[in-house]
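ENTRY TYPE: paired fold submission
RECORD: A
CONTENT: sequence, then structure tokens
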Amino acid sequence: MEECGASGFDFIAYQPKGKQRDDVRSRIRSHAMKATSASRRRQNQADVKLPAEAPSTGLHHPIPTFALELTKIGEYGLDPIDLSALTSIHLGIRASTILRTESTLSNLLVCRQQSYFSFIPSRVGQTEALHNAFQCLRTVAHSTLAPSRKKSDGLIMKDYGKALRSLQCAIDDEMNRYTAETLCAIGLLAIFEVLNPTTGHMWSRHISGASQLIQARGPSGFNSDFDKSLITALVYPICIEALFKSQECFLDNPEWTRVLESAVIAEDTFSDRSRLGVTLMTFMTRIPALALMTFHVLSADESLPIAELQAAIAKLRSLRSAIIGWRRSFNTALLNSVSVCSCRTTCRGAKDETSKRYELLAISIVLHILTGRLLLCVSANERDFLEEEVQSQAAELKEIEVSVAGKHDRATFLISQKAMTANATIATHSDFQESVGTGRLVEAWKLVKFLELTKQKEV
């Protein structure tokens, strides 16, 4: 491991029996993704050959004997695949607030879902970066679930530093840089940042690193089921980070759209990788660029050519129409779906499917609100009914949040993150209502305020 330092990783001297200094913590965190952008410049990933991956045949993969001890989480009796529920983290800062209690996390972890976690047990102990990242996540999960046996902050940060070092070595190694295991390790450390209350705000750094690594890998690098499970789990975090950083999302591209569409599991109706679920992902990839476009229009104001304004309005109308069309398809799927109590569905499976229905519906409502708010900013003639529409959507999302509470833990977790958008919509109603009937574009500060409120920790 020592030679990794030659590529620029700043090694840290740990004090396992004491608490790390603030500057030491900062140095640990600041090196999580340091070499990723340099990796892109050194190699054209279009020519990289990735190891083949056998397709997944289901959610529950057998854990080989050699990995049993490695993946056992203390005395809590938690199967590592239970951590799959944490792939529903879309907004790290809010998720970190929600997951600070033992009861919240323990309730959530009984809600397994289809994800890249099903591929981890057979790989733990074989790939150092993935192994150390999983051990790091295991430590912090155990500390939250069993606070009486919680490791000291120093030991937790020691595990984290070890995971970061092995991840950096993998990124520096051309043979390991683009493997699914390396990307998975980044995803696990992003979850660690959410669970660890002292570093939850650093979640975005890992998401940014994952985004750069996925770009460097290129669309041709996502062929196995493990690859597809990883990228579909990271779509929303990557898009949200791009939106809040005022950047276009690289996934808003026909080649990447084809990658996402290739991840569709035809027999699924309401899973993340169902046709309905993946279609929502492709909608989300368009939001950051449309937000940038809207801000450009608002900043240009009267100097903007009419043709450019009309083109912007047409793009936003197109996405809004697609979202409305998705809702019709969703309603049809509900009508055609079998009863959740049918003989073909176990009670737990029925509950999980119902949870996913709520989750997909909540995501679609958020996309509808965002698109509607962007459109009404630039389309004065539609502003009155569009503002009424987004307020109705916000009220519906708040009703869903209440209806799932105490019944569907994973849906409650995801919708609690999404509810920030509803709260921000309601809180800024008067600002946007003032612009109704003016015939002018909405002031840019109103849109800034709305988006800032959607990402606050507490609302």
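RECORD: B
CONTENT: sequence, then structure tokens
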Amino acid sequence: MDKGKSVKPLTSSLQNLDLNPGSNIKPKPSNIIIANPQFPSTFCFFFSFIIDLLFLWLLPKKTKPPSLVSLCLGVVGKNLDDIIDDLGEIAVNLPADIKMALAAIARRRKLLNDAVLISLADTSWEIIDVSGSDVSDFGIIKAAEICRFIRALDISRCSKITATGISELVKHCHLLETLRCGGCPRSDGTARRCLSIFKPNLNYVEEDSWEELDTNEIASGAQSLRWLVWPNIDKVTLEDVAAECPRIVVNPKQSPFGFNGNHVPWEALQHMVLDDAVVKDIDPRTWAIHGFTMKPSSPPLSSPTEMSVAEKFRLAFEERDTRLAPKRAKNARQHQRRAVRELMLMSTRAKAAVLASQASKSLNSRS
């Protein structure tokens, strides 16, 4: 048998052998577009770059482990109620940031009161958040005497802080720029009564605009207050603030242009919590061990310009009580004079009866 004749058919059969059975399938239109040599190469590069970015974005993020200080604060925060009576002695040698973190934990655990705030207050503090706590006028006044460099203060939902405490606050804290208030009927009423305190009293000046005034030209009142965060302020009060305190912006919103050229600080944004930054690395279970969890403040369901029924009744009662106070004082004086006159009459009648009985006895004895 000739070897050449037997090799040729084998060679031709090997050449016809298809080692890639899927090569006959027509590509999809998208593949044709990308594989088209006439298609711009820049788009192909950009498309692959976007795919790489999406892939990196979908990768699990590596979380930074908490620091040793944050772990220690978490342990202290969980046992804060056990050491709260001795907190004044413990906090003497603590740094200012540690004191602020402990105050934030105490507020979240509903343990923040006058004693705790005064024990932790530091002269270098620029931000104080006592919202929703039991701090009263006494505590906020003492804190204002210690922390004279306060720029932002949150006293919202503090039912024990009255206009007296806010009045003393603005006297001591001349750098206060942002004040957060309201949040509950009593706190709303306090803020409404403080409009005269917020309004600056001016010395004699010749400027044409409030914006041109210097701080030393303001005799009293809130000298540096520029941002007032009061989510459920009513329409009437809002108009009063705009008319009497034009330097103060109520409920500012983030804007690239700001207000009158002034950048809105983050402390004045409604959705921000002032002391969140100092506890961001601390385990939230520190203040959730008793079933209390911090929730972001949300606007009320009702319209922000509408007062609650209880607040309307309270304001109506206060107005009626103030209106009838002079009449009640007049009636009290009349009742007092009448009682004195009746007492004198009763005494005269009693004296006359005694004299008459004595006279009748003497006449009977003579007869």
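NOTES ON RECORD B: Residues 70 and 280 are 9 Å apart (CA to CA). Confidence is low (pLDDT under 50) at residues 27-35, 203-219, 295-304.
STATUS: closed
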